[in-house]
Batch of 3 targets.
Target 1
Amino acid sequence: MATDGEGESARWPRRLYEEGDEPDPRFTLANERTFLAWIRTALALMAGGVGVEALNAVSAEPSDIRTVLAVALLLAGVLCSGTAFTRWVATERALRRGEPLPAPRLAPVLGYGLGVIGVAACVLLFVTGF
């Protein structure tokens, strides 16, 4: 295990790395890549929210529906970002303990949530001309 020169673990979060055995590095790296994919998804959602609100700001007739859509995309990005780390920790803990991996909780929420946002965007597009 890596140390910082004083005998303490230099890896964070310490309490995670203090339990269980070191898993195969391939699994740890795959877990990290998955975490980074969720972070990229969060950034894309937030960028979409900013883009929708920017469109709203420059349009001749600003729309409350566009603002709600922008806020929904931003909140989805925040949720995705916040949940990505807890998912990474839970998966890493399971790998270290030799337990089954936790069920994905964010994927269905994000999938259905984005489905609702997509339907709202389509309704906005066809009803109001966006």
Target 2
Amino acid sequence: MTAKATSQATWEQDVLQADGPVLVDFWAAWCGPCRMVAPVLDEIQSENPEKITILKLNVDENPELAMKYQITSIPAMKVFQGGEVKTTIIGAKPKFALEQDLAAFIG
């Protein structure tokens, strides 16, 4: 399973109006660390399908959202809940570190 993509067009419905927590992975195709963290996020999503939704946002295709959420380096992950950013995670991390960062949502 791979994380579903979101975009400017679907952002409001996918992220801001979502029922539970949504982790958005801000990434780009040319970013090596982004490609490294993607399968880890897929694992976390498949192990916690009822607790968190993980979406990907290509910053090259959606520069307005990258600017709005002050994405200055990637990979960057933000957890949204109730339309607000609750947590920001910067950089590729191993699974156990990401799970610690997400403990409040998947614990």
Target 3
Amino acid sequence: MEPTPDDVRTQLRRGTLEFCVLAHLARSPAYGQDIARALGRDRVLFASEGTLYPLLTRLRGRGWVDTTWQESPTGPPRRYHRLTDTGRAALDAFVEVWRPYRAAVDHLLEGPTA
């Protein structure tokens, strides 16, 4: 059975989505719907809010993210997520590995440049 593009996308998301969330939170604290909107714009990184909230719970459990409740001007209070120092270290470790990893994959896919 040949993998479909959706199968490949799912596998890539499993390995990188939590770090994409950390990268988004590195810019500023955000609430879940904001994170979902930012990561789901092109439907490549993120497909469903149903995967986001369990992921945020795991990140909190690891100590990579803290949450606080803040009043919302348009409805009920919102849970804002903030990157912790431990989360920053996890993101830094990912970036250190990701860049050469991505370059190696790109090199294999595109072939050597002249």
